[in-house]
Amino acid sequence: MATSTTKLTLKMRLAPSSLGAEMGFGYRAKFFTGSCKLLSSADSPLDTVTLLPKTSESESTPPTLIAISEALQKLPGVGRKVADCVALFAVGGKDAVPVDTHVWQMAVRFHPALLDEVTSPKKKKPKIEEKEEEEISSPKKKPKPKKEKVNITDKLYKRVGEVFRNAFPGGYAGWAHSVLFVAELPSFKQKQEEGLSPTSTPLKKKKREREN
């Protein structure tokens, strides 16, 4: 029977096209095979067992979160968000905060001043306010708040991470981020509106059962 190592070796030898069609990796197939080859080579930026950056034997201090993220991003197809996901869920980076537009919106709720940091000075607020007043005065049209698209630059990415780490000190900002992220999912919001938790029964039903 083939060992897990043998299976991994066989997968590494498969063509990206085979991985995409047969295993469902899609366009990521080439990144999967590329990462496997790099991890198994002498030039790998990571230790194949711990997935932590390779260090010399004389270094006794554990690698920083930044060092882990930078090392992971040397793998094909791995960007800052995926690197932070791996750091958080696989190598003990409990303070790693993967950032996307949804996480950005959560961060703004904790720290509204973030909006001022990304607001373009070229925008003319008086004109925007006049347009909103016109829409409100019209009985046929109801103003709908529009979510502005935000370009998550490297600077803003780091800033959002800082907001979470400041809001949830103690080294577990990444896990706090994950709980809040899940709470934003439509399926969880629906359960909250119905008075449910993911593993509970309706509150009204429970009340009736107690009364009976």
Describe this structure in words.
The chain has 212 residues and is mainly α. It has a domain at 94-212. It has helices at residues 4-13, 16-22, 29-39, 65-72, 80-90, 101-110, 114-118, 125-137, 154-167, 173-183, 186-193, 203-211. Helix 1 (4-13) packs across helix 3, helix 2 crosses helix 3 (29-39) and helix 4 (65-72) packs across helix 5 (80-90). It starts with a helix and ends with a helix.
Write the SSE topology.
Blueprint: H1 4-13, H2 16-22, H3 29-39, H4 65-72, H5 80-90, H6 101-110, H7 114-118, H8 125-137, H9 154-167, H10 173-183, H11 186-193, H12 203-211
Helix pairs in contact: 1-3, 2-3, 4-5, 6-9, 9-10
CA-based shape = globular
Q: Spell out the helices and strands N to C.
A: HHHHHHHHHHHH
Q: Biggest sheet, in brief?
A: none
Distance between the termini: 58 Å
Give the number of helices: 12
Mean pLDDT: 75
Helical coverage, percent range: 55-70%
